[in-house]
Amino acid sequence: MIFGMSSSGSARKHQAPIRLAVLVGLSVASACGPGFRPPLRPVYDNAELDRTLAEVRLDVPYRTDDGADPDKHRLDLFLPRGSGWPMLAFVHGGSLEKGDSAQRLVGHDIYRNIGRFYSARGVGVALINYRLQPDVNWVDQAGDVATAVAWLTPRLRELGGDGRLFLSGHSAGSWLVGHVALDAALQARHGVDPGAITEVISISGSGFDLTDDLTWELFGREERWHRRFSIEPGDPNWKERASIIPHLQTDSPPFLLLYASDEWPALIRQNKLMCEALASTKAGCRIEEIEHLGHRRMLLAMSHPDKPLAARILKTLGLE
Q1: Cβ neighbours, 10 Å, residue 221
Q2: CA 103, CA 76: separation in Å to the nearest integer?
Q3: 190-229 confidence digits (pLDDT tens)
Q4: Model pLDDT, residue 40
């Protein structure tokens, strides 16, 4: 369910072809040497970026104090030439334990591909990195993303944007941006202006309501997530503390919740619970199921010109 894990037989059945394809690709790449690049098509399309259309700034630090981590407190910027474009701030997934904007899958830089794809179409992109567990806990990780958003917000127009800021993430990244967009205490600690967030675009997100019993019946393996979301050993309130829904207010930014038709049942339930909660607070919610994809393939399809997911995101950003 949450952030790329499943225990149900039906969920494993849905995801088996994806896992097999990735494992086969990795095995073949290893056997054939570092120069071999097995294709990820038809789900993945390598985006080309004409540097006359956009500027790329990699590894820009968003935190530089004595406690900063130079490897993780950084982001990548893809900035269209000219001005007057929206900014998409994207946060990677990886179960809170792995991932980076520079990560490569069988030779392809799947996250920076998102930057190339959208900036070539007139959208600024910021790919946000954050520290990983077990070195830090989830509160620290949400704080990292909040710090990056606070760094980015006052620079939107300076960089060429029109002031609109869309927060997005895949899987665990979606959960992190959900906290940044809604948690008033987190925002206050890290200087986030909630009024500056135009909308949240959640890609295969979950963990919106960790107190939901049916979710855990569908998912199982609760002890794994207790470890991941506990701030201290034996924390009895970890489900309430890590949930996003309790932070909703009537003036919260709207959400677009996108999930795959082949997602894990518990994840689909979590998206529906989140949309119901958003609707009850009048914050605004749209929810859509993307057909013929699974949890992992949603990430790859974000930057594929022929996939409905990319078209849906571009429409939300004000581009057709």
Answers
A1: 13
A2: 12
A3: 999 999 999 999 999 999 999 999 998 898 777 777 788 8
A4: 62
Of the candidates 222, 170, 226, 223, the residue with the CA atom closest to the CA atom of residue 200:
170
DSSP state of 72: T
Question: Token pair of 3, please?
Answer: 């952030």
Domains of the chain: 9-316 (3.40.50.1820)
State pLDDT tens for residues 80-134. Answer: 999 999 999 999 999 999 999 999 988 899 999 999 999 999 999 999 999 999 9
Inter-residue contact 104 to 66 (CB < 8 Å): no
The answer to whether residues 186 and 230 touch, using CB atoms and an 8 Å cutoff, is no
Torsion, CA 24, CA 29, CA 30, CA 31, rounded to 10: 90
Q: Which pTM does this prediction carry?
A: 0.88
pLDDT at 12 over 50: no
Which contacts of 58-63 are long-range, i.e. CB under 8 A and separated by 24 or more positions?
58/102, 58/112, 62/128, 62/147, 62/148, 62/151, 62/152, 63/144, 63/147, 63/148, 63/151
Q: 244: closest CA among 211, 218, 286, 268?
A: 211
β-partners of residue 199 are: 166
Question: Residues near 104 by Cβ (< 8 Å), separated by ≥ 6?
Answer: 110
**What backbone torsions phi and psi does residue 165 show, to the nearest 5 degrees?**
-130, 120
Nearest by Cα to 54 from 144, 136, 122, 133: 122
